[in-house]
Amino acid sequence: MIGAAHCECYIYQAQSLKEKRAVLKSITARLKQKLNVSVAEMDYQNLWQRTAISIVAVNHERTMVEKELHTALDMIDSMPEIERTVTEFEWL
């Protein structure tokens, strides 16, 4: 089972693309280190305060994939530098 969570987020404190990318690099590194997921920025690469990231997990059980994705989303929600707005799930 492959599960993906597509999130649109705001980084309100970013005043440049460099600051935005530093925040994203920190977030993606934390997610990859602590969870068994892949993370990538998918849209809005040239906007300072807006981003769209996708988080993907693979496992033979859907419940395990759901648990990993929800844990990743909880980690994003606990980070004060980013606010998650729209989230969509996709299952393959």
Lay out the secondary structure.
Elements (H helix, E strand, L loop, with lengths): L1 E9 L6 H18 L3 E6 L6 E9 L3 H17 L4 E9 L1
Antiparallel strand pairs: 1-3, 1-4, 2-3
What does this structure look like?
With 92 residues, the protein is of the alpha+beta class. The protein has a single domain, classed as Alpha-Beta Plaits (2-Layer Sandwich). Helices cover 38% and strands 36% of the residues. It has two helices and four strands. It has helices at residues 17-34, 62-78, and strands at 2-10, 38-43, 50-58, 83-91. It has a four-stranded antiparallel sheet, with helices on one face. Strand 2 (38-43) and strand 3 form a beta hairpin.
Task: State the total count of DSSP E strands.
Answer: 4
Main β-sheet, in a few words?
Answer: 4 strands, antiparallel
Question: What proportion of the residues is helical, as a percent range?
Answer: 25-40%
Shape: elongated
- As a percent range, the share of strand residues is 35-45%
CATH class division: Alpha Beta
How many domains? 1
CATH homologous superfamily annotation = TT1725-like
CATH architecture group name? 2-Layer Sandwich
Distance between the termini: 6 Å
Mean pLDDT: 95
User: How much is the radius of gyration in Å?
Assistant: 13 Å
Strands of the biggest beta sheet: in what spatial order? 2-3-1-4
Secondary-structure element order, N to C = EHEEHE
Kindly identify the CATH topology: Alpha-Beta Plaits
Which structural class do you get from the secondary structure elements? alpha+beta
InterPro entries: DUF503 (IPR007546), TT1725-like_sf (IPR036746)
Pfam family, one: DUF503
Organism: Alteribacillus persepolensis
Protein name: YlxP-like protein
